[in-house]
Amino acid sequence: MLWAAAAATAHPALTTHEALSGVFGSISLASWIFLLVPQLIENYTQGSAEGISLAFLAVWFLGDIANLAGALWAGLVPTVIALAIYFCFADLILITQCVYYNLKNSRRSRKASARSTDSVEAPLLGRRDSSNIGLPGSHRRGSQASRRRRASSLPALAHVEAGGSTWIKNALSVIGVCVVGAAGWAIAWKTGVWAPQPQHQDEATEMALGAQILGYASAVCYLGARIPQIIKNQRDKSCEGLSLLFFMLSLLGNATYGAGILFHSQEKEYLVTNLSWLIGSLGTMVEDVTIFIQFRAFGSAETSSAVEA
């Protein structure tokens, strides 16, 4: 009887709320792990990082640093600390890639500008296109006009199909992340790696005040990080160079993270303790939706020019 009671205490029955909390938390974890991969691929494919705001990444990086410091201060489990370190490391990779492409393309632009200056100073008789003699820049304007004519002659259905296929691929990727997260939780539950946490915390396990302050600092950084990106998209009237899947995974991660906390417990003390993380996750969802609206309104520069032509 004593052994049975001890076994029941070590492996308590799993309730529906605890299971949902675990599943949502695991899906959120999978979203954060794969979050930056789409944007890294997008930058590599385009050979440019002009679409993403470095201020966005810098403030987000500060938020991850505050999150890591808070996790260390609170003495959280090693898995949480390891993930916080991974987030900071992944941020550095993306920031380094963006800085590299910006510097590389900046040098290339200066070289191209120097070559164009030399060509303008060259003898006009040496030009093969006699129709543009004496009209500097007319060839460039003509080529742009021809490109606009070709773009406007393309059927609009092609743009619709391309955009539709992109959304379908991204939706399938999101479903795949959800499946991986749910499967990961099931394996962790069956093997005993994951166990439901008690809803009631005693005074010895309460989070330190400094750790909570760092949690609020990270939440403020997460909330403010997307503002420079939203402003940049609005100023450029384009979302070219941004990965839509990147923000879809961000929305998924924030939504499931908040759901995992709320399904675990709705007690006042618990919610107050986790309020900073709830603000940081659920609050940024509004900004992610704003960026989705910009994707819908602006699209990429090519699509915009084709429509305007």
SSE topology:
Blueprint: H1 2-10, H2 16-34, H3 37-46, H4 54-74, H5 78-121, H6 138-153, H7 156-191, H8 209-236, H9 244-264, H10 268-273, H11 275-298, H12 301-308
Helix pairs in contact: 2-7, 2-9, 4-5, 4-8, 6-12, 7-9, 8-11, 9-11
Account of the 3D structure:
With 309 residues, this protein is mostly helical. Helices cover 78% and strands 0% of the residues. The chain has one domain. It has helices at residues 2-10, 16-34, 37-46, 54-74, 78-121, 138-153, 156-191, 209-236, 244-264, 268-273, 275-298, 301-308. Helix 2 (16-34) runs antiparallel to helix 9. The radius of gyration is 26 Å and the shape is elongated. One of its GO terms (molecular function) is basic amino acid transmembrane transporter activity. Its main location: membrane. InterPro entries: LAAT-1, PQ-loop_rpt.
Fraction of residues in helix: over 70%
Contiguous low-pLDDT stretches (5 residues minimum) are: 1-10, 124-160, 301-309
Backbone CA Rg: 26 Å
Q: Please tally the helical runs, counting DSSP H or I stretches of 4 or more residues.
A: 12
Family: Belongs to the laat-1 family.
Catalytic activity: L-histidine(out) + L-arginine(in) = L-histidine(in) + L-arginine(out)
Keywords: Membrane, Transmembrane, Transmembrane helix
Transmembrane segments: 22-41, 53-74, 80-103, 167-187, 207-225, 245-263
Short recap of the structure:
The chain crosses the membrane at residues 22-41, 53-74, 80-103, 167-187, 207-225, 245-263. With 309 residues, the chain is mainly alpha-helical.
